[in-house]
Amino acid sequence: MKFLKAFNNSAALVEDDGTEKIVLGKGIGFGLKKGQDVDQSKIERCFVTTEQSDEVEQVKEFTAQTIDVTNQIVKLVEPLLQAKFSDYQYLALADHIDFAVTRINDHIDIDPANNDWEVKNLFPKEYAISKK
């Protein structure tokens, strides 16, 4: 895989056998120049791009912190739920985390007690995992 462009330190555009892909992983885009090989051991997630790829635009907007936190959560949750996140689920989670971080950074009042009962009772297993 050849490095093409960094979106941030944890997201990069690469070329792999003539196909453009977005790869995610801690430090994946740090210090690389166009054409250099990507350290494949750092890749935690890979998305194949298309001409109308909304994922490309979405990933460009995420901070490195959002991607790192999403990767940590996915690594924790997948074995506990005995499930594998699809690309769509991964991006939805990253988008949710990014929005939450933005709200916190913008000091918007957040009252988790308003949704606590509903989440706890409708998704008890997931709620227990979220406490970790």
Strand runs, count: 4
CA-atom Rg in angstroms: 17 Å
Give the end-to-end Cα distance, rounded to a whole number of Å: 36 Å
Q: Strands across the major sheet, in which order?
A: 1-2-3-4
Count of helix runs? 5
Q: Specify the helix fraction band.
A: 40-55%
Domain count: the total is 2
Properties at a glance:
132 residues, alpha+beta, Transcription Regulation, Sacy, Chain A, 2 domains, 4-stranded antiparallel beta sheet, 4 strands, repeat, PRD domain-containing protein, CAT_RNA-bd_dom, BglG_antiterminators, CAT_RNA-bd_dom_sf
What does it look like?
This protein has 132 residues and is α+β, with helices and mostly antiparallel strands. The protein folds into two domains: 2-51, CAT RNA-binding domain (Transcription Regulation, Sacy, Chain A), CATH 2.30.24.10; 64-130, no CATH class. It contains five helices and four strands. The protein has a four-stranded antiparallel β-sheet. The chain starts with a strand and ends with a helix. The mean pLDDT is 82.
In a nutshell, what does this entry contain?
The protein is an alpha+beta fold.
Topology:
Blueprint (H helix, E strand, L loop, with lengths): L1 E7 L2 E6 L2 E6 L20 E4 L5 H8 L2 H18 L5 H19 L7 H10 L1 H7 L2
Antiparallel strand pairs: 1-2, 2-3, 3-4
